[in-house]
Amino acid sequence: MRIGWIGFHMEGVPALREVLGQGYPVMGIVTLTQHAADRRSGAADYTSIGREFCVPVFEVDDINGEVALGVLSELDLDLGFCIGWTQLIGSAARDLFRIGVVGAHASLLPHNRGRAPVNWTLIRGEKETGNTLQWLGDSVDGGDVIDQRRIPVTPYDTCESIYERVAESNRDMILELLPRLLNGERPATPQVHSDEELLPRRRPADGEVDWSADSSRVYDFVRALTRPYPGAFGWFDERRWTIWSCSLPPTAMTAEGKPGDVIGAVVSPVDGACGQTVRCGQGAITLLELEDESGLVLKGRELSDQRWQGRRWRDGA
Length: 317
Description:
Helix content is 26%, strand content 26%. The protein has helices spanning 13-21, 34-37, 46-53, 66-75, 91-94, 117-123, 159-182, 215-225, 300-304; strands spanning 3-6, 26-32, 57-60, 77-82, 97-105, 128-135, 145-152, 232-236, 239-247, 262-266, 275-279, 284-292, 297-299. It has a seven-stranded mixed beta sheet, sandwiched between helices. Strands 8, 9, 10, 11, 12 and 13 form a six-stranded antiparallel beta sheet that branches. A hairpin with a 2-residue loop joins strand 8 (232-236) and strand 9 (239-247). The model has no long low-confidence stretch (mean pLDDT 96).
């Protein structure tokens, strides 16, 4: 069986490395050009993996373009894995794989079909997500299901920690699937119909914090957009600050005031616990790491030493 691998995102790396390490016949890896990868969050270096395992790597901007179709045709493939990719794979590309193309979607399909499912899961405060292997077809995230894994979401998770577990589940499901495919099986269960709307695409400009929201929603918003994504942001002291991390203090600790007011500093001998507490619509959050547009990072004692009490984060530029 001749296998092709399509991916650029971190969620596909553990699976690819294990598949290659176990000697499965991967004929080629298709990934994004550096220019295209630089415009996307969570990109990983697939070129070095190809070099390590002596597998040719092909960089493309469009999986449905002439260059990519030519590469896939020349590789003469039976099976494809598309793990961590943002473009829909059209029928012209899928038809170049004799058995089909296996894709992964970081949710329990049919729930949360569409863009950025991990980010949306956290933004919405959901307590569980998952990962689904499916056969890719014409509909968005609507292919027959091969396997699924549930992933609990705790208050301590971020988009990065969830994607780490998604990546692990990709590896585990694919390693269980490959022997079955080599044995001539093709497991597939039609998806249950759902009227849920597709999750919309998220852009960096969508990351502005709404200080009038409940503190738990602001906390979820920040952890949903932190590294490796562009981050939530707000405006303070005429500067745009990216908020990389925050904590959620008890709601009862906040006095009356307006959303965005800086209540005061949090001081601790533990550097990572230091920060600035800001009032939300209900409750407050404590900012733990900030970065302004010039690259200046404030965290730890340097952040708690800022004399910001009584000042306010504002909306918009």
